[in-house]
DNA sequence: TAAAAATCAATCAAAAACATTAAAAAACTA
DNA sequence: TAGTTTTTTAATGTTTTTGATTGATTTTTA
């Protein structure tokens, strides 16, 4: 039997049963214990499964949870700085939209005491907002598990009944030609509509996002003020020709 | 049986029952007492559960997240029974509405594995629903701080774009003359609309709510099936004349 | 409160599963 | 085909897991 075929069988059985015994795999593939062991070792290295004593087990969304955590710690310092700076643009009387995401989340701590109303599509944001005594409206819609963001038709419909003084949006890519982008088209649609409904839009991003572009376009550079942690002179000139920029670190 | 499989079973039973006896686990896994003890020790170290004399219990942390639920440990046992019973009415293929509130929250643990779609106005419900791999839509709207329920114009608008096979609603008062009632008129409006949009409505309430009435009316008795933990013969006859009733404890 | 029952942690030997190695078989190449 | 590489198997000693037993501790019962 071919190695590839054994691997297929192993992963198939695993998908069905969540965990499989080594002996079961020996029977299913008519190969020796050693061979299966080697297969498991290899598949584990490829992150296709997790070895356990006596067999193998599916590895599930623990990765995702971690990835969210990891992501939220990556460039955290920069994100906090950007968030604090962005919050300084919020004035009493404003009605603002807060996009789901780690950077906008960090803004909340700096909104305390301001006389504002917040609308958001981030479920994670809700607790923090209420904690800081900020009147909050949540969009409806389908819940994206990984980021706990509300998306889809429901979110868009809900959005349309609001209008904002300012909106604060996260982006994964900022590019002179391609504008602001994000990997998930569903998210892009929500971000774009929120910007349309705002008097003024702010895009929050750390410098690692500059000159990058991802799948789904949110808007052109001109359509928002970019808030970024740092930016060298050369790039700054190029970008300033196209859009308003606020650089945090001076 | 593999260690990983035992651990999975243990955590699954625990998620359903809150606490499990060691003996139950011995039977469920067909392994020895010692083995289970070792498993529990290990899982406790991994912060997956808490050992108690005679077995294991869910981590306290989960309950703490639910600060509102905490205080309503009043009649918790009854609520859990009602919730489990109510969940048995949910069938594959159903699209259901889950009202915010403690009793409906307890239903979620019993919905795992069912092929359903859930719409809810309870922000607290979201984590549990996603945890149990249930596709979930959230209504939008204003957030009532105390109960983390979505209410108001936004919630009503969002609701109107759905329709349900079944809805499960909590009520604070059940009265032969005044029907189903709840203290908050905003909540009543959402509950009422959800019922209108459902093929069939279930009201969940423990016996302490019987013959009580509170400020805002949700609906007449006839408009829903009442699920209650217990009910003496005399009252049962009176109520049965007006509406369908399911009594959990027989 | 004291005795009885249940549950517990600790220990141990048997069994199962493990990684490692070397030899055999198969696949490939020149 | 002969030589080389890759894959598989079998054998080795080591490690992990397991269930039974012990006496200590906790909970329940009377």
From TrEMBL, chains A, B:
Entry's Gene Ontology molecular function annotations: DNA binding; DNA-binding transcription factor activity
Pfam families hit by this protein: DeoRC, HTH_DeoR
SMART domains xref list: DeoRC, HTH_DEOR
Record keyword Transcription present: yes
PROSITE patterns documented for this protein: HTH_DEOR_1, HTH_DEOR_2
Residue ranges of every copy of the HTH deoR-type domain listed in the record: 3-58
PANTHER family according to UniProt: HTH-TYPE TRANSCRIPTIONAL REGULATOR SRLR-RELATED, TRANSCRIPTIONAL REGULATOR, DEOR FAMILY
Entry protein name: DeoR family fructose operon transcriptional repressor
């Amino acid at each position: 039997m071919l190695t590839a075929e054994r691997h297929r069988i192993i992963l198939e059985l695993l998908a069905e049963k969540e965990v499989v015994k080594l002996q079961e795999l020996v029977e299913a593939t008519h190969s020796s214990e050693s061979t299966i062991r080697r297969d498991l070792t290899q598949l584990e290295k490829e992150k296709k499964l997790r070895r356990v004593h006596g067999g193998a087990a599916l590895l599930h969304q623990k990765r995702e949870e971690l990835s969210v955590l990891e992501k939220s710690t990556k460039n955290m310092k920069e994100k906090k700085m950007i968030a604090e700076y962005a919050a300084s643009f919020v004035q009493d009387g404003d009605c603002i939209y807060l996009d789901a995401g780690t950077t906008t989340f960090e803004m909340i701590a700096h909104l305390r005491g301001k006389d504002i109303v917040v609308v958001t599509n981030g479920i994670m944001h809700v607790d923090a907002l209420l904690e800081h005594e900020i009147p909050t409206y949540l969009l409806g819609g389908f819940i994206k598990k990984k980021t706990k963001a509300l998306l889809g038709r429901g979110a868009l419909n809900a959005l349309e009944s609001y209008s904002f003084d300012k909106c604060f949006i996260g982006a994964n890519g900022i590019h002179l030609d391609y504008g602001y982008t994000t990997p998930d088209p569903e998210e892009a649609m929500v971000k774009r509509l929120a910007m349309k409904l705002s008097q003024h839009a702010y895009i929050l991003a750390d410098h690692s996002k500059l000159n990058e572009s991802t799948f789904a376009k949110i808007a052109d550079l001109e359509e928002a003020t970019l808030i970024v942690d740092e930016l060298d002179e050369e790039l700054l000139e190029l970008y300033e020709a196209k859009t308003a920029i606020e650089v945090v670190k001076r």
